[in-house]
Amino acid sequence: MHLPPPVPHPSVPPQLPATGRRVLVSGASRGLGRAVAYAFAAGGDRVAVHYGSRREDALRTLDGLPGTGHVLAGGDLSDPAGAVAVADVAAEGLGGIDVLVNNAAVNERHPLARTPYDEWADVWQRHVAVNLLATANLSHLAARRMIDRGTAGRIVNIGSRGAFRGEPDHPAYGATKAAVHALGQSLAVSLAPYGIGVASVAPGFFETERVADRLSGAEGEAIRAQSPFGRVATAEEIAGAVVWLASPSAEWASGTVLDMNGASYLRT
Prior knowledge:
Helices cover about 40% and strands about 15% of the residues. By secondary structure, it is of the alpha/beta class. The strands form two sheets. The chain has a seven-stranded parallel β-sheet with strand order 3-2-1-4-5-6-9, with helices on both faces. Strands 7-8 form a two-stranded parallel sheet.
């Protein structure tokens, strides 16, 4: 007697492919975003490179990606309509979205004791709009596409060690990154039944062109001394963690906040 093949249980979520995925990376014109985009492309995925204002930098990122089929997606993520435009361009150019990396962020210095109130209020508005609300909006736009198509997916948020350690000169940055971690954990619970994993990376200090001046001289020595390894991370090290969290094998890591700080800050 030949039995028919088993029928998958309807509660079993779809599975994410191991390669050939369609990946949207926000804030990918340079720095960590560029490293993340390259890491996915090097693994055989197609990438939508988002930029806010640095189009020329984003084009350099796009031109340097291995493989073919990558697209450029410009737009102001602080505007909800801009987030819709970015998601639409990415989905149309790639044929869908399987992975979203929420990397776009602002980080402006604003210590309370030395920042006038009007400037303080403006800085907080920008941080909330870009770091938190844009992350929430892009997550909704990407996840609903996955749900509506019945496909699995991943969302990886770039948080920060500062969400736990404190950011005295950048309090809005630390606060919004803590909110990003909490958002990711809430979405991890709600999206798991659809095969969508959500996780966050919390980097410590890592080297990019934006912070090159801070890594020189005495300040650079003090920053490197925060880690017992005596150095800061590379953008490629952080990107490697992002790629793993977005992989099929990392489904059980959904909901995690992965510290990437070289033992410079240990949470209990």
